[in-house]
Specification:
By secondary structure, the chain is an alpha/beta fold. It has seven helices and 14 strands.
């Protein structure tokens, strides 16, 4: 496929057989990657469509490309959603990259009782922008046609309220647990899954969810699941669990 890749953001333009990239993507393509006129560029819109294009105007503020070929991928039948208690920055960056490679639809970052740090409103916006950039770059690198939706940061208590009112009827919740009586993840899925529209997979921070939070998950119908014989880092637990759920859904 194309040697160069770019993202067609909401502020980019699609006009007839032409694409006009936004200033940030134009700069990255023409200045950072040094794509020149007539270069072949693969452009994805994050919604399932990938365009094979030719660079007509290597303008670092408004790159213009001609569409050569268009391919649209079908949306997944079921949504796979990650609920992540925000870990340390490097771990979060790794989690986002792996989540894109596995192919999930949404990420909900939350603060829980044992979260490693807190952010003020200004820092929250900064973090969300950084995480969005990581998701976009990971899609480019992996060839994933769907950009996961990053939700606004909220407390775990706020998520519980929204889940109870908006999602509970159409979702199956699974929480990665260190509790001794939890069943293995695959066994939990096999016994409880009934073709729900979405699966929400919850992973705690380095200090794990608190006992009170585990009780709240259970009250909302989340299933506790073990991931293996040992205690896993947050980023390992995310990759392991999402992989198991993805493979499970592909057998259904």
């Amino acid at each position: 496929m194309a040697g160069y890749k770019a993202f067609l953001s909401d502020i980019s333009k699609l006009q007839s057989e032409r694409l006009f990239l936004d200033p940030q993507e134009s700069h990255h393509l023409c200045r950072v990657l040094r794509a020149s006129k007539d270069s072949v560029v693969e452009v994805f819109d994050g919604k399932g469509t990938i365009y094979k294009t030719k660079l007509l105007e290597a303008n670092p503020r408004n790159a213009e490309l001609e569409i050569i070929q268009k391919k649209t991928y079908a949306l997944p039948k079921r949504e796979l959603i990650l609920l992540m208690s925000i870990p340390k920055p490097k771990a979060m960056d790794q989690i986002l990259k792996h989540a894109v490679e596995i192919g999930i639809q949404r990420i909900i970052p939350v603060f829980s009782e044992h979260s490693a740090f807190r952010l003020n409103s200004e820092k929250m916006e900064e973090k969300l922008n950084k995480w969005q950039s990581i998701l976009i770059e990971s899609c480019k690198q992996s060839g994933c046609p769907l950009l996961p939706q990053m939700h606004a940061i909220e407390s775990l208590e706020q998520f519980f309220l929204r889940y109870a009112s908006d999602w509970k009827q159409n979702a199956m919740g699974v929480v990665a647990s260190l509790e001794g009586d939890a069943d293995l993840l695959w066994d939990r899925l096999e016994h409880a899954y009934e073709s729900e529209k979405m699966i929400i997979y919850a992973v705690g921070p380095e200090g794990d969810f608190s006992k009170t939070e585990y009780e709240a998950f259970k009250d909302l119908g989340f299933l506790s699941s073990r991931l293996g014989a040992h205690v896993l880092r947050s980023e390992t637990a995310v990759t392991y669990g999402l992989s198991v759920i993805d493979q499970f859904l592909r057998t259904r």
